[in-house]
């Protein structure tokens, strides 16, 4: 298909990498293997557009044009050496993968909303019209943005569910492509195991370890008594809430709208059935990992 399109449209561009180049002189389509295909608008007639839409999916999204800094980061994340000498400077930064439901918000609206929380220019590279990468550069004498503090403001203002996977603070821009690939690789895993709107990479270490382990073998090692206990939906909810509340009984009871004594009774029953007391970190860790494996 590439050769055929190249013969008809000399300006055609193919991108298999994640980020859309966002060149507004081009019209963009999505190929059958999710590659981005761009053709200069001046080369296309209305008849060409109708024909291309029969086997390619037009990319809609009303993306804001790339700033110079976004272009620089795009080159870095494509493993290309930037044209200017900015790369020689040591930059502190972190990569934040974001996602929201498809067709719920235009990219330009999301960028405008995020601008209010950044002291300097915001840097966003879009994968598609509902997910992408936000790059936060650390400025001297300024704090990093606390996404857990702003997430509820954003969601209430935009009326949309947002998810953020926050990467670690880095100083070597050459490692950015590797970190981005890891963030993208584990994003779906993070959003599957953790329902919080803001997650850090360190939060999903247990999930990463499980996904890269022999799950069949581990399942065989989980006692039947524990499996039967964890099939109880109420117990499962109690365990997850207790862990979210840092094993604080009073706080857990409040979150579950349950009397403290009722909660203690259920925990004692669970301990009798399994031999594990999840009020203690060691046992709570075993139960939590078992729950993740079984799910």
UniProtKB/TrEMBL annotation:
<dbReference type="InterPro" id="IPR025736">
    <property type="entry name" value="PucR_C-HTH_dom"/>
</dbReference>
<dbReference type="InterPro" id="IPR051448">
    <property type="entry name" value="CdaR-like_regulators"/>
</dbReference>
<feature type="domain" description="PucR C-terminal helix-turn-helix">
    <location>
        <begin position="240"/>
        <end position="292"/>
    </location>
</feature>
<dbReference type="InterPro" id="IPR009057">
    <property type="entry name" value="Homeodomain-like_sf"/>
</dbReference>
<dbReference type="Pfam" id="PF13556">
    <property type="entry name" value="HTH_30"/>
</dbReference>
<protein>
    <recommendedName>
        <fullName>PucR C-terminal helix-turn-helix domain-containing protein</fullName>
    </recommendedName>
</protein>
<dbReference type="InterPro" id="IPR042070">
    <property type="entry name" value="PucR_C-HTH_sf"/>
</dbReference>
């Amino acid at each position: 298909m590439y050769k055929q399109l190249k013969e008809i449209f000399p300006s055609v561009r193919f991108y298999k990498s994640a980020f859309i180049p966002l060149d507004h002189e081009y019209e963009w389509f999505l190929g059958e293997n999710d590659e981005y295909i761009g053709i200069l608008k001046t080369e296309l007639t209305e008849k060409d557009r109708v024909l291309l839409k029969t086997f390619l999916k037009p990319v809609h999204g009303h993306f804001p044009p790339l700033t110079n800094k976004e272009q620089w980061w795009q080159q870095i994340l494509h493993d290309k050496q930037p044209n200017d000498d900015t790369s020689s400077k040591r930059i502190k930064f972190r990569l934040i993968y974001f996602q929201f439901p498809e067709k719920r918000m235009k990219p330009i609206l999301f960028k405008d909303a995020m601008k209010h929380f950044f002291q300097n220019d915001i840097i966003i590279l879009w994968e598609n019209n509902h997910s992408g990468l936000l790059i936060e550069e650390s400025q001297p004498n300024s704090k990093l943005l606390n996404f857990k503090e702003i997430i509820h403001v954003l969601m209430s203002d935009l009326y949309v569910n947002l998810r953020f996977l926050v990467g670690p603070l880095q100083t070597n821009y050459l490692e950015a492509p590797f970190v981005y690939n890891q963030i993208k690789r584990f994003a779906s895993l993070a959003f599957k195991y953790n329902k919080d709107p803001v997650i850090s990479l360190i939060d999903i270490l247990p999930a990463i370890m499980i996904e890269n382990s022999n799950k069949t073998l581990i399942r065989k090692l989980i006692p039947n008594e524990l499996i039967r206990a964890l099939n109880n939906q109420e117990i499962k909810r109690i365990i997850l809430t207790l862990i979210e509340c840092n094993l604080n009984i009073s706080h857990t009871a409040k979150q579950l709208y349950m009397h403290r004594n009722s909660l203690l009774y259920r925990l004692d029953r669970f301990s009798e059935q399994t031999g594990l007391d999840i009020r203690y970190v060691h046992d709570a860790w075993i139960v939590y990992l078992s729950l993740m494996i079984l799910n």
